[in-house]
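About this split. The held-out portion is used to measure sequence recovery: a designer receives only the structure tokens and must propose an amino acid at every position. Recovery is the fraction of positions where the proposal matches the reference. Here is one held-out target exactly as it appears in the evaluation file.
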């Protein structure tokens, strides 16, 4: 047996996490910026791949996107495994192959279906709150089942999203351990540096990034104010389906990524969001079947302008293909993105959401955020295109398709006699 010394000396708090995962199968770690969570995670994966006694061990680090995985963790993985004799790397797949047959690979959750069909002995989803919630339940959790693999969720708060919900559920589950590390308590960042950071950040930003607050709103969230008002007005709760009112659907149709569908009922000035559905990598037949399973009485199906683009292979547009399946789309007027977002903001005060059935859609709206220009230290005029944009785009089309029609201008008659 060869002895390999990895050049990693964990801090006491990092050791605490390693020890927790040795006792419990699953863990959630909420930590402040610059805690060292990625270094800790990569080294736990490396040790797992080297010491696992199962055949062909497989371990994975999952970032919100493949690009982020490469930027954040690839150099760490190569640095800490470089001392292992016989190690090899696959740059295009971000894969490290170890001489015992073990493997550590980096993935992006922007395409969770790429991980379907593989098995894992251990995974680390990093910044889980920026991923689709189904990444865990539909993809990663089943991949751990046959070999009883472990999972460690790490991240910094970013609003009350899937990471927040997972943290809360884990607290009462005996199979999980939960740890939270605030900058004011760990001593990792000197007090004078924290004081300096606090001066240049808003209270929400500082509370979120350094004090692990889930109460702070998502930085740059497009609809933060409108959703906060909806909760304050109790417009997010239980909203039952009324069979007497027809259902509108609004779609964002993906080709290589997700398709999102909102289900709404309109009554006077009130719009009830009663359901939401999203899937990835499926054809229109799948979504036609999903609509049938819902059992709603449909009126209008709204779609973006690109549904009329003809495919090179068949020469047909997706609008025509959908019509053959019984889905007759009405195309929403093509407006500038900024105008559409403004329309959605004006539309949100009219909306009531069923919290249970629309949970995934609400997560998308909450996490839809403006892109940030690191060089200029300011937000861009365009939102980030990630998993949240599909549900947010479908909602924007709903706002454009259901906006109230302008009242007809009253006709005034001049009843004087012409003299």
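Reference sequence for scoring:
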């Amino acid at each position: 047996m060869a002895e390999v010394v990895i050049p990693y000396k964990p801090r006491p708090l990092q050791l605490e996490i390693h020890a927790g995962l040795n006792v419990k199968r699953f863990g959630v770690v909420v930590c402040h910026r610059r805690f060292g969570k990625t270094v800790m995670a990569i080294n736990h994966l490396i040790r797992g791949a080297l010491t696992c006694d199962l055949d062909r061990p497989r371990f994975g680090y999952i970032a919100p996107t493949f690009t982020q995985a490469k930027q954040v963790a690839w150099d760490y993985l190569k640095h800490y495994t470089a001392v292992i004799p016989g190690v090899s790397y696959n740059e295009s797949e971000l894969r490290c192959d170890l001489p015992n047959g073990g493997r550590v690979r980096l993935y992006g959750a922007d395409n969770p279906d790429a991980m379907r069909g593989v098995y894992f002995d251990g995974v680390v989803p990093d910044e889980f709150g920026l991923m689709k919630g189904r990444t865990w339940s539909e993809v990663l959790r089943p991949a751990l089942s046959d070999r009883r693999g472990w999972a460690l969720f790490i991240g910094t708060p970013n609003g009350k999203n899937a990471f927040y919900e997972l943290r809360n559920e884990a607290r009462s589950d005996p199979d999980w351990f939960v740890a939270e590390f605030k900058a004011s308590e760990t001593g990792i960042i000197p007090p004078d540096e924290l004081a300096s950071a606090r001066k240049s950040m808003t209270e929400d930003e500082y509370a979120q990034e350094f004090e692990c607050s889930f109460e702070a709103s998502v930085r740059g969230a497009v609809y933060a104010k409108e959703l906060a008002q909806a909760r304050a007005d109790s417009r997010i709760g239980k909203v039952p389906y009324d069979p007497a009112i027809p259902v509108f659907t609004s779609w964002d149709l993906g080709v290589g990524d997700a398709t999102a569908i909102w289900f709404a009922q309109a009554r006077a000035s009130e719009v009830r969001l009663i359901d939401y559905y999203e899937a990835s990598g499926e054809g229109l037949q799948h979504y036609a079947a999903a609509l049938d399973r819902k059992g709603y009485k449909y009126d209008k199906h709204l779609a973006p302008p690109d549904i009329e683009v003809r495919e090179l292979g068949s020469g047909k547009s997706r609008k025509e293909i959908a019509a053959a399946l019984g889905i007759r789309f009405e195309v929403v007027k093509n407006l500038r993105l900024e105008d559409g977002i403004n329309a959605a903001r004006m539309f949100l005060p009219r909306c009531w959401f069923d919290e249970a059935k629309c949970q995934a859609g609400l997560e998308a709206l909450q996490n839809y955020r403006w892109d940030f220009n690191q060089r200029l230290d300011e937000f861009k005029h365009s939102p980030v295109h990630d998993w949240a944009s599909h549900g947010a785009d479908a909602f924007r089309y709903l706002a454009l398709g259901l906006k109230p029609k302008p009242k007809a201008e009253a006709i005034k008659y001049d009843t004087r006699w012409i003299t």
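Annotator remark: The radius of gyration is 25 Å.
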